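Example 278, ligand pantoate.
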Amino acid sequence: MRVVKRIAQVRKIIASAKRRGKTVGLVPTMGYLHEGHLSLVRLARRRCGFLVVSIFVNPTQFGPREDFGRYPRDLKRDLRLLKKEKVDLVFNPSVHEIYTEGHQTYVEVVDWSKIMCGASRPIHFRGVTTVVLKLFNILEPDIAVFGSKDFQQAVIIEKMVRDLDLSVKVVTGKIVREKDGLAMSSRNKYLSKDQRKNAVVLYNSLKWLRQAYIKGLRDPKLAIKKMASMIKGKNGKVDYIVFVDKNTLEPVKKLRKGTLVALAVFFGKTRLIDNTTL
Ligand code: PAF
């Protein structure tokens, strides 16, 4: 497994893999890998001949009061894990390599970047789409794999790919959960013992919703009220709970099969997200 920091070098390696007829797969990450990331790596491994994982904590997707500086990092451990998964190449550029002095070009999926997570993180998705497009340009993957815990992110990236006629195929992997149901996230590390125990309420509220839906609940407002009260009962502060169409992210008036329910909840300063499809 090669670990490369420079764009020029990584381009040469990818070009050579392509000349050898390899399908190039990319799993973009910000490192501090957990089983959720590794499941995406395994999915990509099965689908490509040359597998690249990028590790880059992207400053442009963090707001000024967000956790860029303290975002967890452990490159040594990440590399050990990726080697076991038979990754061919890790691209681990510096911030300066990706954003040269005076960088001023951004790409944004304008409307969808403002809703849901974008409402409380106004520059977040612009930063995500910009860095992902840069990674696509640098690494020229045939397929790129994203997790579906960040459902909105995956939908926005798919939209960018369509709108800009990119030839990469976007694949999404399933949410991977801890034993008690909490969706895996690098940010779970920030939670205190109590918050960690309480945070399972995101999953439990989604589980409750599924049951209520099976029993006939169709009114999103009623569902939101109940879910919000479950979350408040565990000291969580709801950022949003939405019921939307999976393809358009438009709110639905009535729950139906295929409706996406997504939520973001603060425990202290830590903001967690989760979702499920009815
Ligand atoms: O999901 C993430 O880890 C990041 O948003 C991504 C896609 C690697 C872009 O920085």
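Summary: Residues 28-30, 58, 61, 128, 131-132, 150, 153 surround pantoate (CB under 6 Å).
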